[in-house]
Design brief:
By secondary structure, this protein is of the alpha+beta class. The chain is 35% helix and 33% strand. The protein has one domain.
């Protein structure tokens, strides 16, 4: 393998290791869905501005007004807990 190829392999490997996959929780569609779920549960929120994914179908949502909710599925039902 020539020197030029080795350099490119090192660069590509570094990018692959350092690149972080996009957080699904930052996806505008996910934020919109969390906003709707919280509203349907009758909780005050207004708009979800950020969310942290805890696991499959488990999020901590932060609302525009500063309130935080855990939104998750328990026994097939959506649960919204104020944090």
């Amino acid at each position: 393998m020539d020197r030029h190829t080795q350099v490119w392999l090192v660069i590509l490997a570094t990018i692959a290791l350092l690149a972080r996959p996009s957080q699904a929780a930052d996806d505008p569609a996910v934020l919109k869905d969390l906003t709707a779920v919280i509203a349907l549960q009758g909780q005050p929120c207004g708009q979800v501005v950020s969310a942290t994914k805890q696991g499959d179908n488990d999020y901590i949502a932060t609302c525009k007004d500063g309130s935080r909710y855990r939104v998750f599925i328990n026994e097939g039902k959506v649960v919204v807990q104020k944090q």
